[in-house]
Amino acid sequence: MAARIIDGAKLAERIWADTSEQVAELARRGRRLKLAALMVGEPPACRVYARSQAKQCSRMKIDYELVQLPAESDADAVTDRIDEMNRDPALTGIMVHQPLPSWIDMPAIQLRIDPYKDVEGVNPANIGMVFYKKPILAPCTALAEVELVNETDMQLRGANAVVVGQGAIVGLPISTLLIQQFATVTGCHIATRNLVEHTRQAELLIVAVGKPGLITAEHVKPGAVVIDVGINRVETTDADGKKVSRTVGDVDFESVREVAGAITPVPGGVGPVTVTMLLRNTVEAARKQMARDR
After folding, report:
1. Could you tell me if residue 2 is inside a domain?
2. 87: closest CA among 124, 117, 62?
3. How far apart are CA 55 and CA 78, in angstroms?
4. Are 69 and 182 contained in the same domain?
5. Distance of alpha carbon 72 from alpha carbon 236, whole angstroms
6. Cα separation values, 13 from 5, 60, 137, 173, 244, Å
7. What is the 3-state secondary structure (H, E, C) of 74-115?
8. Which residue has the higher pLDDT, 293 or 59?
9. 19-54 CB burial, b ≥16 within 10 A, e <16
10. Average predicted confidence (pLDDT) for the chain
11. Of residues 241 and 212, which shows the higher confidence score?
12. DSSP letters along 206-249, please?
């Protein structure tokens, strides 16, 4: 039997409805929310994401500002603008579109964002405090993955979980969050030998590498829950021989869905939930700023 498809869009709508009520409640208390997104140059993927953010914010009655800097901007120009946004009391949340130009150190930029306005949860202070269960704002992609796992009613306590990819923004935080739920977690990465031997033991398999089709049916334990965080653009040929570009994950969806118990699609899985978690973090940021500034 084919795997259950975990519908990220439907889950995102439920989270959106709850978050929207919280936005309205804060507005009644006199706190209007505003999210600012900084972009250097105009990378095509960033433009698409920015339009989506603007649309979602408008729908939720959160003010949105896209701060665009020239493509040739240096690190000082970016940090100066972030400092301005940190000081602006009208701004509830700040995020930085990636990629930045190669000459700008992204971790240094993330460190510059006020942890109380860091709605992506990427400031090293927030990521580090995940280990103590006390982040001001947790990484929104990792939070999205937890929400998707919860959709399956999986009992995490004692479950064997394998996280492929141990990046600072996704892999390491989700590994930590799973350990805090008392799952037994194996972290795999570029140096892992015989990857299939590890992934075949997983009741929960989370993949965040950025390599299309890395995980195939042979990697997956029958009945496992598979969360695919990868977003990759690949070029294929249609029936007429025309080249087309499409978005795929790190998991070979068609083969794995015949083995897994539940699986997230790409697109339509982690992505929509992550965007909604960004908005939920914007609400959380406002609350924590209000408490801090009393």
Report:
1. no
2. 117
3. 25
4. no
5. 33
6. 16, 12, 21, 24, 30
7. CHHHHHHHHHHHHHCCCCCEEEECCCCCCCCCHHHHHHHCCC
8. 59
9. bbebbeebeeeeeebbbbbbbbbebeebeebbeebb
10. 94
11. 212
12. EE-SS-TT-B-GGGS-TT-EEEE---EEEEEE-TTS-EEEEEE-
Task: Determine contact, residues 119/86, Cβ cutoff 8 Å.
Answer: no
Beta sheet of 225-228, edge-to-edge order: 4-5, 262-263, 225-228, 204-207, 160-164, 184-188
| CATH number of the domain where residue 76 is located | 3.40.50.10860
Domain that holds residue 258: 140-271
Please state the pTM of the whole predicted model: 0.92
Packing angle of the helix pair 8-28, 270-292 (nearest 10 deg): 20
More confident residue, 239 or 258: 258
Binning pLDDT at 50, 70 and 90, where does residue 23 land?
Answer: very high
176-222 tens-digit pLDDT: 999 999 999 999 999 999 999 999 999 999 999 999 999 999 999 99
Q: Using 50, 70 and 90 to split pLDDT, how confident is the model at 135?
A: very high
Can you tell me whether residue 56 is helix, strand or coil?
A: helix
158 and 265 fall within a common domain:
yes
The Cα–Cα gap between 115 and 128 comes to 11
- Domain match, 82 and 205 both: no
Number of alpha helices (DSSP H) and beta strands (DSSP E) in the chain: 10, 11
247-255: average pLDDT: 95
